[in-house]
Amino acid sequence: MVQPSHPGNVGAAARAIKTMGFHDLCLVAPRFPDVLTQPEAQSLASGATDVLAAVRIFPRLEDALACTTLAFALTARARVLGPPPCDIREAGQAASGHLSRPGARVAVVLGTERSGLTNEDIALCQRICHIPANPEYSSLNVAQALQLAAWEMRYALAQAASLPLMPTTEGRHDQGNEPAGNEKIQAFLAHWEEAITEVGFLDPAHPKKLVPRMRHMFSRNAMTNDEVDMMRGLCTAMIKAARREG
C-alpha cells in the first residue's frame, strides 16, 4: 500500500489478505509513523492483528518491490503509457503461473487513497491491473480493492493446486441427511393419509386422486430421514389436534 493515510484502511487490508490466506503486507511511506498501533487500525484488523504486527514499512516503493519478480499496479484509470494492462482475474491467473517458478514473488500495489498510483509508481511494476467496476463510479476503497485482488489470487492458486473451494464437514457423518428408505417413506405416507383424514381434508368415501398425487409429490422429492421424521411429527400433531377438537 503506497502512502496510506487512514489507519483503518491498513487494519482492514490486513484482515482482507488474511481471510484469503496471505500474510505479507507492506506499506510505503504511510502518513502516520505509528499507523500500526493506532486504535482504528487495530480495531479494523479484527482477528488479523498478527498480520498487522508483521507489516513491513519502506520509505520508497522501489525498496518494497526489490525482492519481487512480478508486480501488478492496481488502478482504475486507463494509462496511455505504461506496462501492459489486464483485468483482476487475468492477474490472478498470471500470478498463479508465475509463482510456479522457483524464487518467484508477486506483489499487488495499491494507493494512495485520494489519487491512486502515480505514473512513476506504475513504471516500477510489470503489469497494470484493473477491476471491472461500474465505469460511472469505478473508485474502490483501497482495502476493498485489496480484498478483491486477494480473492482472485487465492482462487487461481487454489484451482492450480486442486484445493477444495467449498467448506467441508471434514468427514462428519449426519445420518439425518441420508435419503430415507422406502419402508420409512411408506410408513410416513400411511401416517400422512391418516392425518389428512382426521382433519377432514381427505374424504375416504370420495378420495378422487388426492392420495396418489400426494404420494407422487413426496416420492419425487427424495426425502431425507430428518424430513420424514419432521413430517411424521406434523402428522401426529394434526391427529391429536383433530381428536381434541372432536
Can you give a write-up of this model?
By secondary structure, the protein is an alpha/beta fold. The chain folds into two domains: 7-160, SPOUT methyltransferase, trefoil knot domain (Alpha/beta knot), CATH 3.40.1280; 175-245, Orthogonal Bundle (Helicase, Ruva Protein, domain 3). Helix content is 46%, strand content 9%. The protein is built from ten helices and six strands; from the N terminus they run H-E-H-H-E-H-E-E-H-E-H-E-H-H-H-H. The protein has helices at 7-19, 39-45, 49-53, 61-64, 88-98, 119-123, 142-160, 182-198, 210-220, 225-245, and strands at residues 26-28, 56-58, 70-74, 85-87, 106-109, 127-130. The strands form two sheets. It has a four-stranded parallel beta sheet with strand order 4-6-3-5, with helices on one face. A two-stranded parallel sheet has the order 1-2. The longest helix has 21 residues, at 225-245. The protein is elongated, with a radius of gyration of 30 Å. Residues 2-150 form the tRNA/rRNA methyltransferase SpoU type domain. It comes from Parapusillimonas granuli. Keywords: Methyltransferase, S-adenosyl-L-methionine, Transferase. This is RNA methyltransferase.
